[in-house]
Design goal:
homodimer; alpha+beta; 8 helices
């Protein structure tokens, strides 16, 4: 067994305390005396690093760390375990919250049996709500990803040449992103997403329905992963939508811009302008205290007023939202959807993606990542928003 | 609602029947009258495509399809549903197997409540055992991935230049793989893996312990994803291990080769030769009826005899296995580990990765993907196995 003195906690004590205070409010709402975290995402949230094991957070006092791997972390700060049965909670919580939306049924059964004295409750929804309000440090990390992603987007026109396929362009964008520091792994909540680094949707392929909870579609290259670029050559008259996940810091931005080999027909240009106008309006409206659903309704209404509703958020299959929270995962709270009950708070980070699919042209529109401030939405993904003509 | 005539089933009827007969044996072992599948991986296995929804397999008769997304699939063959409560099983199974190792606790609670007449049992371990024996078509798809991956490995030396970092080399390998048709998404079972397309481990970074269940380590670029390349320049005297996942067909190969700017010191060369010798021995031994554990013990014994055990499967943190099954996911059954009870069968596909971490040099050794045949292991990842010297 290796011993060394690498500190387990990579957050400052005050940053961890700030996050724990959010989690403790979540625990109180869940009626729990203790919270046992197992997912990489939440372990990263509360320690600043990923390990395989568990973190126990009591209602008061210091967290306890139980580490399976890497063994190099199991020293003074943490207890080395090989299996969950070795976890001991000295305060024996009477109600224990677990991440029941994330843990498998089998693992939940096994883990619950370790604490026969505790009533088990679901901490997942409360954890998600706590994480939806970012700390200033988290906003900084997201903003830093945005700066990197902006640099990538500005160089996308250099990657185009006549005759290039959607997937070839996507591969060059992925390479550019990686060279800029993109970490290459993208975390999602739930089991209805599988993410590429970037999605390039050229022409009507954007309107091919997919199994996934994405705003836009795409047939993909293979029936095993039916989404995104399908290998067709990019043609004049078509739009090229580039929707990329920017994970440069452990925290993600989500950004979309539209490109085209030649100017698009007026209907498509008008829809793109409507997307930008929706973002401008949302930036103004998106203040603390505003219901997330009103942003959705505004977007839908602006699409209707412009006689573009038929193309709004898809044509053959429509997405039921116009935006989503993000951070460590690409799909966090709040969802900007018609039936969302969420009320925006300062520190929410959301991606807004009012998009349109125009027959014979493809997908147009933009997506920006924003932080909610007292003055409205502040954009973290600043690159030119107009359709960029290749060459 | 779109109606069209895209057939849902993309497998031939006989291929589906072959797979269903395996699943039905699994159901019998689980004591179940019916099996309800929800994971993308198993939906792909039984239909040849991915959708969000469920497949119900009764003990006899045709499967039933329940589709949430894409809506374009919900036609004559399939029932469109928006939520699991809309699933109706006409045969009302008295014992229903669910994928309890995969489904979240919350989703399992909700899904179980839909079938109050049924006793719920765990089908996951039996499904995994059924999928561990590949059909001839599955072996073909894995072999096709192997051919593509071999082409990529042969061109890796062209990507090297003096002063290149491990991550820069990895990015160029990822690009080459994608241009060769690599699908860019890698599925894993369980929640202790997060995969890059390729891992490039240069020098002693290979020995940095990670949280993940991988054979080798690496510190990574960021504490949010602490594995793999860490950005250091590749130096003379060090080994460069390239361990890549080859998902070109929906089915994966797993392959490792070792490269170096200059010939390595004798200890490292000897360890690499030992890795190759272990593979040769395993190829001969790996016949139907052989216990998976005996392959592990043989590998460990050969390492001991060569006085290399100290470096075998890691130095600071050792992996507890020397190989693993793979197919749709990178970590399927069987595991080639000391306590495995698995007995090899014709049609198992396994990756064998006897590796060594040599102080001051890094990781050496190879990994091949094999199918178990009556004559022993047949290699599906054929590229030169000796250490390739760059330039």
């Amino acid at each position: 067994m290796t011993t060394n003195t690498t500190p387990l906690l990579l957050l400052s004590a005050s940053e961890q305390e700030l996050r724990m205070s959010k989690l403790r409010k979540a625990m109180e709402r869940a009626g729990a005396d203790g919270l046992l975290i197992h997912s990489y995402v939440n372990i990263y949230y509360i320690t600043g690093r990923v390990f395989t094991g568990y973190v126990y957070i009591p209602l008061s006092g210091s967290p306890l760390y139980f580490v399976k791997r890497p063994v190099s972390l199991a020293h003074a700060d943490a207890t080395a375990i090989r299996k969950p049965e070795q976890i001991e909670l000295p305060d024996r919580p009477s109600t224990l919250a677990l991440e029941l939306d994330t843990i498998s049924y089998s693992d939940a059964q096994r883990l619950s049996a370790v604490f026969p004295y505790a009533k088990i409750v679901n901490g997942s929804p409360y954890l998600a709500e706590a994480r939806a309000v970012k700390t200033p440090l988290e906003v900084e990390l997201i903003a830093a990803s945005g700066v990197k992603q902006e640099r990538v987007y500005r160089r996308i026109p250099n990657l185009y040449h006549e005759g290039i396929t959607d997937i070839e362009l996507q591969i060059e964008i992925e390479r550019l992103s990686r060279l800029e520091g993109c970490l290459g792994v993208f975390r999602t909540a739930g089991d209805t997403m599988e993410l590429f680094m970037a999605n390039v949707l050229a022409g009507e392929n954007a309107d091919t329905p997919t199994p996934y909870d994405f705003a836009m579609g795409g047939g993909g290259l293979d029936t095993s992963i039916p989404v995104g670029a399908d290998g067709t050559v990019i043609r004049a008259g078509e739009a090229v939508m580039v929707d990329a996940n920017g994970n440069y810091t452990g925290y993600m931005t989500d950004m979309t811009r539209t490109f085209a080999p030649r100017p698009l027909k007026p209907l498509a240009q008008r829809a793109h302008d409507c997307s930008i106008a929706i973002c401008r309006k949302a930036e103004e409206m998106g203040k603390p205290g505003v219901e997330a659903s009103t942003i959705y309704h505004m977007a839908e209404e602006m699409a209707r007023e412009a006689d573009l509703y038929n193309y709004f958020m898809g044509h053959r299959q429509k997405a039921g939202f116009v935006g989503h929270g993000l951070g460590i995962e690409i799909n966090e709270l709040p969802v900007i959807a018609p039936r969302s009950k969420y009320i925006l708070q300062e520190g929410n980070v959301i991606a807004l993606e009012p998009k349109f699919v125009i027959p014979e042209v493809g997908a147009v529109g933009i997506e920006n990542t924003y932080v909610v401030t007292a003055d409205g939405l502040k954009c973290l993904t600043n690159a030119p928003e107009q359709i960029v003509i290749f060459e």
